[in-house]
Amino acid sequence: MSDPIQRDVGRPRFWERYPLDELSNAEWEALCDGCGKCCLNKLEDEETGQVELTRVACRLFDDATCRCANYEIRKQFVPECVVLTPKSLPDSAYWMPRTCAYRLLHEGKPLYPWHPLLSGDPQSVHDAGVSAQGLTVPEFDVPEEDWEDHIIEEPV
Ligand code: SF4
Ligand code: SF4
Fold first, then answer.
1. Residue 151: pLDDT above 90?
2. Per-residue pLDDT at 136
3. I want to staple 136 with a disulfide (CB 3.0 to 4.6 A). Which of 42, 63, 104, 111 is the partner?
4. What is the pTM of this model?
5. Distance 62 CA to ligand 2 centre (A)
6. Which of 5, 35, 39, 65 to mutate to test the pocket of ligand 2 (most atoms within 8 A of CB)?
7. Is residue 156's pLDDT more than 60?
8. Where are the domains of the chain?
């Protein structure tokens, strides 16, 4: 499959050699593994701060491609959609999926071998079973009080 994310844009092994705030925009974008799990709704326990991922997806999420169906104008439909940047990452990392490349690097961990930057294949994230492909239910179909019935275990 062709990769919707441009990967051959950076310095060799840039994610291991440079801090996140020194990456070019293209290198930053290339870090996304395409899993789509940040577009799933989460439940946060107000007392413990624990975050659980559900398979209830954002209204714009397409789980066949694991992409946003209208990325350029998504804020018109989903104003709460977070734009992840090196600056916003420290505040957002705790609710990002545990396998998310941005969260891993923020926590000083290496990327998994299935990351397309390492495997050279965008399909490897789906084959590894760590993406949201074919996994979701639309948020229109599930009232918020039932989201806890759709919590998913994250691979770690
Ligand atoms: S969870 Fe992280 S790696 Fe996965 S799609 Fe979202 S930003 Fe990209
Ligand atoms: S608006 Fe698009 S990018 Fe934002 S959470 Fe929804 S599907 Fe994901």
1. yes
2. 98
3. 63
4. 0.95
5. 9
6. 39
7. no
8. 14-152
